[in-house]
Amino acid sequence: LKGGATKDIPFARAESRTRVYAIASGKGGVGKSTVTVNLAASLAAQGLSVGILDADVYGFSIPRMMGVTTRPTRISDMILPPVCHGVKIISVGMFVEGNAAVVWRGPMLHRALQQFLADVFWGDLDVLLLDLPPGTGDVAISTAQLIPSTEILVVTTPQTAAAEVAERAGAIALQTRQKVIGVVENMSGLVLPDGGILDVFGTGGGQIVSDSLTRSMGAPVPLLGRIPLEIDLREAGDAGVPLVLSHPESASAKALSSIAASL
Ligand code: ADP
Predict the structure, then answer these.
(1) Which keywords, in A-to-Z order, does the entry hold (predicted)?
(2) How far is CA 57 from CA 2, 53, 91, 95, in A?
């Protein structure tokens, strides 16, 4: 990642037909990357040309969840992204040694994001998904500056405290004048073997965020779906094959596919 980006960003051009979605969350560990890989795989399976840009410097997990085993290659001054499950993938994790903790500050992050957008050979994408670091930080603002048309998808858990933090992540869009396209509630009720439902993280968080963002944005911000807690979903992430591909019949996969179809 030496030197700065020299090219312009194709997705920022007025004539760009690529829809860019930023997947945002208030805090880490709520399933932002899990949602990102499954949406991407589902959209690619529909025949769309899809890319993921993993900008979550603090918790990059896209390469593992997508089973990426190769590194990006260079062709003259462009970076060629690995392709897994039909999705082009670039991650900050591909540019740091081992599992080194990334202690990048704002300006460096901004530059890396700019370079990933401009110097990666994405081709003619239908959809680009950005996995942002949690919180309301620099990367969200950088995204708004670099691609103003980015639409934001907020991921939260059902927990009220988590919902409050997620609201703040969504509310930044008000300042950057970006559209919040919807809310995804993840880690909703766990289905027990006897058919009962265990609400491990409580209930209602997704609706709270949806209602609150609808009020603050002055436009509908729908709850697009609720994804149950499911062991298969965690295992799919560890195995590097998105659940929508490995177990499309499962409740979580169905919820994720239906969210993808609504984008
Ligand atoms: P984030 O990107 O928000 O940090 P991750 O997508 O990495 O979160 O998810 C955190 C952990 O929780 C991962 O191990 C993931 O496999 C697991 N996970 C996410 N959503 C679910 C779910 N609905 N059911 C079970 N495990 C989940």
Answers:
(1) ATP-binding, Hydrolase, Iron, Iron-sulfur, Metal-binding, Nucleotide-binding
(2) 17, 11, 8, 10
